Amino acid sequence: MAEWLRREPDLKVYDTPWRSAAARARAVRPDVCAADLDHADAHGLPPLGDLC
Hints:
The protein has helices at about 1-5, 20-30, 50. It is mostly helical and about 50 residues long. The protein has one domain (about 1-50).
């Protein structure tokens, strides 16, 4: 999904591993946040409300 969205010239896309997702979200303050819940790193992740 990140590669597809990067093709849009008016969007900035940050793809981040789960372990650093909360810190990245706080740093960039995104308008939209998407998550791959099926990814192997997603095991034991905090609620999405903590990330976005």
